[in-house]
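Deliverable D5.2: sample structural annotation.
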Amino acid sequence: MSPRNRFFAASVLGGRLHVHGIHDRDPWDPSRLEWATELEIDPNLVVTAGDRKIGTREELERVLREPTEVVPTQFVWIHESLVDEVRRVWERRAAATGLPPADKAGDRGTEHTQPKQQS
């Protein structure tokens, strides 16, 4: 993957995906995703703790199915091409837990924002 590829942050807790920047009870809003490039991510990726970059739908499905006994919480960076797939996963989880669905009126689709500046 090129250093110009962008990824957004999420955590997998007990097989459930939690997207950073979007609270579980908030409507889906891709402008709130926390973006970074590979050049920003790679030096801080702790693979031994289960952190990883997700670049395909299959990798995303695999990380959500992995047993949680070994690594109960994983920090993942998900490639920008998977925004729609992550939204579907997020909406299914919200529906299964009784959380409100994404606000269709405020939905901006998959428009991407610029990465946040590092402080």
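Annotation notes: The longest strand covers residues 6-13. The CA atoms of residues 55 and 81 lie 8 Å apart.
The annotation will be released with the project's public dataset once the embargo ends.
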